[in-house]
Amino acid sequence: MAVQILEVKKESCPAARLIGKKYEGVPNWDEWWNNNWFEKLEVNPCLPFNGDAYIGAVHIVNGMPERWIGMLFPPDTEAPDGFESIDIEPLDYAVCYLSDKENSGEFFSMDTHNMCLEKLKELHMERKEDDWCFERCNCPRFTTPDENGHVILDYGISVM
Asked: Which of 154, 156, 138 is nearest to 54 (CA)?
């Protein structure tokens, strides 16, 4: 596995509203780029916890994964026409800062998720089952490769 965990930080996110689109199957990032949907969301002030990062998120609802693509905003932010929203209670996250080659599919694999869970166990952090996990695509960490062609993806897992 080429993905490496550079560091893990515990971060606290206040109450938030995730505004974006909900997916029952695999989220479609290409439609976001093709339709410039992030630009439509970026007109709102973002949640400082997230900055202007794009979010891929998942949590379990009735035993099934519910996936989202969008951005985090303060709880009172209205969703623009064509977008959905979901409110997220204040949560603590263990954020794994992952490094790999730009466009690596391994960032988004179950092996990487499981590697992060193992690291949390080593650090005596307990996952909050069925609650939120997110991929935070933060500029410039995720958009500008270093001299070795690596980028950094923030991978957050809600913890107790």
From this structure: 138
Mapped onto helix, strand or coil, the DSSP state of residue 33 is helix
Provide mean pLDDT across the span 111-121.
96
- Beta strand pairing call for 84-88 and 150-159: unpaired
Q: What's the mean pLDDT in 63-91?
A: 96
Distance CA 5, CA 155 (A): 10
Tracing tokens 């005596």 back to the chain, one arrives at 124
**What is the pLDDT at residue 25?**
85
Cα 75 from Cα 89, distance rounded (Å): 9
Give the global pTM: 0.92
Question: How much is the pLDDT for 54?
Answer: 96
CA distance 90 to 152: 25
